[in-house]
Design goal:
Helices cover 18% and strands 25% of the residues. The protein is α+β, with helices and mostly antiparallel strands. The chain has a four-stranded antiparallel β-sheet, covered by helices on one side.
Length: 206
């Protein structure tokens, strides 16, 4: 299991932080803490993986993660949350997930989360990756860690890119939220699969 660390979002690179979520005067171990610069467009105010382009620096990748990563030097896909993936036929793709992954609240990461992530874009057309349903026909959960994607128009290159660009969303949290919360909510205290927790923030840095 990946070791969990903490992302601290604060004004300066100091170990004595004031927590914008309510905690004060907390000293964070420097060897377990990452301090990051703020976003281009303003102070940290969004940790929502659905609106990932607005999310605070570090939210994609450190808090929320992808099924695969991509190495541009070798031009190879590397399994991350996924264990493997392969085309079974010209329009059917089998995805197998790692079995040792948990969300940071201890809930297992499963095929239900992957299915929910994509079907969210089918339910709400405002989700930026909803056009995938123009060529994705259906998703079938085979078991807790296996899914089969059936495509009406298999676009191999686009699907490969999708696998290393799409942040996975926790079903047990987002399925309880309203459409407005999903599409415009800040998602404070985010629960991801990554090695870091979003612990505190202030106006300049993350």
């Amino acid at each position: 299991m990946k070791q969990k660390f903490t992302i601290v979002l604060c004004v300066c690179l100091s170990l004595l932080c004031i927590d914008a979520f309510g905690q004060k005067n907390i000293v964070y171990p420097r060897n377990e803490t990452v301090f990051m610069g703020g976003g281009m467009w303003g102070s940290p105010n969004n940790w929502n993986p659905v609106t990932h382009w607005l999310a605070t620096v570090g939210t994609p990748g450190l808090v929320y993660e992808y099924l695969f990563t991509y190495d541009p030097i070798t031009d190879k896909m590397k399994p991350w949350l996924a264990e493997s993936g392969k085309w079974l036929t010209k329009n059917t793709y089998k995805l197998t997930l790692r079995k040792d992954i948990q969300w940071t609240d201890g809930t297992p990461f499963t095929a239900d989360d992957v299915k929910f992530t994509y079907e969210l874009a089918q339910k709400y057309k405002e989700v930026d990756y909803s056009p995938i349903w123009n060529w994705l026909k259906k998703i079938r959960k085979v078991d807790k860690h296996t899914l089969k994607f059936t495509f009406s128009d298999p676009r191999y290159h686009e699907w490969e890119r999708e696998l290393y660009e799409r942040l996975m969303i926790p079903k047990h949290i987002f399925s309880e939220r309203s459409k407005e919360e999903i599409l415009t909510g800040a998602n404070k205290n985010p629960i991801g699969t990554g090695s870091y927790l979003a612990e505190t923030h202030d106006q300049d840095t993350t």
